[in-house]
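Record 1 of the preview.
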Amino acid sequence: MTNNNPYETSESSIGGSPDSAVSVQNITKNYGKQTVLDNVSFEIPKNSIFGIIGPNGAGKTTLFSIAAGFLKANSGSIHVLGINVEHVSKLMGRFSMLPQDAEFQAGIPVLEQLTMFAELNGMDKVEARKAALEALKIVGLEEVAKKAARTLSHGMSKRVALCQAFIGNPEVILLDEPTAGLDPDNARNVRDLIREYSKNKTVIISSHNLKEIQNICHNVAILDKGKLVENSSMDNLVASRNVIRVELNEDASAEVQAALLALDCVIEVISTDSQSFDLVTQNTGRKETLKAIYGVMGEHDIYPKSIQEGESLESRFLQVTGGKSDGSSSS
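->
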């Protein structure tokens, strides 16, 4: 008998840990002789914001494409909510993805396009329109519903694209570079939206903005040359009582960094961008160490924006990938 229920799952399509929203199991992907993903396995906890990062060419986009059902792995499997993504149609309405370069048709009103996306998720016309309007309300852009997509600014277009990913209240959402190309204010708005509307959902973000990933994600996986090189909670990944993160309101001069390195309590200065660096310190009294650091800053008339204990994600990223930064620390 033919099974006409698209939501009914066969025994062979179900897998992964019951505590995970997404289970990546021994994924390998080759393009000819090139191995893009090499036996990658990790779990993404339910109801978390999870970051996937790595240098250019690490395999992030390929992994996203396999998870979304756009590509087929040579071996291994990915299960979303217990369902093998080879049967991705069974996840209709529960699983969504926002590609990095998602675009809308220039001359068609935004609401019509969002309604169409909702219908593709299995809603009828009335439900789809209601869901599209609700999604626009979520991102604070109800007023653009009847406008053609070409009339929107870049920041508005990004927020409307985010609507597409949240339509219908999916349980798992993939976001590929959701703030790429946005100015700091619009980027902050998008991050706030993700935080606010990710409650009771699993959101997976791929980004080159490591400060953003550190600020928003609960867990992170780092890929390098197709291999998984780190997978941890963010707290565990950056925890270190012997590292102090310093962020300035201006560029950090070589003179200031040299003065800090000259302190008896400082072992190493690791620059993460022009206004931020990590200080690897001796295992001595924290009060005395901080007093010495502030003293050097004061002598050079520099007032830090923040000083925090623990590594920056950028610093940890450079360690595990061999120092191959590609501008990831930009804010």
